[in-house]
Amino acid sequence: MKAVIGVVLLGVVLPALSKECAQLYEENGLSPNFNETIAHAIHSLTLNELRKFNPLAEELNGVPVVNPRLNDPTETERVIPHAPEEEINKNFMSEAMNTIDLVMSQVGQSGDQFGTNWPIVARIVHKFHMKDTWAKIKEEFDLMKQPAKDLCVCLKDTKENGIFQAVDWVARQYRTAPLLTLLNKPLPKLKDAKSWEVWRARLVQYYDSQAITDAATYLSCVLNHTY
Questions:
Q1: According to DSSP H, which parts of 157-208 are helical?
Q2: Is the CB of residue 2 less than 8 Å from the CB of residue 180?
Q3: What does the alpha-carbon distance between residue 124 and residue 174 come to, in Å, rounded to a whole number?
Q4: Which of 222, 198, 226 lies closest to 42, judged by CA?
Q5: Spatial separation of the C-alpha atoms in residues 78 and 172, rounded to whole Å
Q6: pLDDT for position 113
Q7: Rounded to two decimals, what is the model's pTM?
């Protein structure tokens, strides 16, 4: 098995979708593998990032994410039901340097989400790749009309529609896989411009407009507190 830094064709076994929800997904332009695209977008989300979409985002937000303390032996859940608030020190002036401080401060700790399989450079790239992805999603989120209530009811039921299972797949890869892959292909060790060319070419594929729409639609539903 191989660790993943981004979304892949997961092959997750899904629960059967209700006919009503399946029809709503199709009618509203979600992709056939929306559970996977959304899982990639949310698997490491935090309450801090959710509040960039909506300042009123709550602790009980219903966004399933990989347990930030995944490799702590006392933790029993691979996936937790709500994106947690991330404690970020203010040792530096910029968000970028404080983010690097956060990533580096977690390496080798008992609750280190990535364990021993992730090189430090890969951890930093993953963190900023996800921040960049969320910034792209927010562009569409800000322009999107609020999805209909019946669609949102279906999308927010993540154990029924397969989103939860897809996030859990990512968590299992983080815990057990010895190698990093992207798009089901092994990644070279990130050490120079040539290896970065490979990483960059694969990472930019996650800015697919359909994947961004799937994620923006889901977050519009989750962050609308009227239903």
A1: 158-161, 163-176, 193-203
A2: yes
A3: 15
A4: 222
A5: 7
A6: 80
A7: 0.89
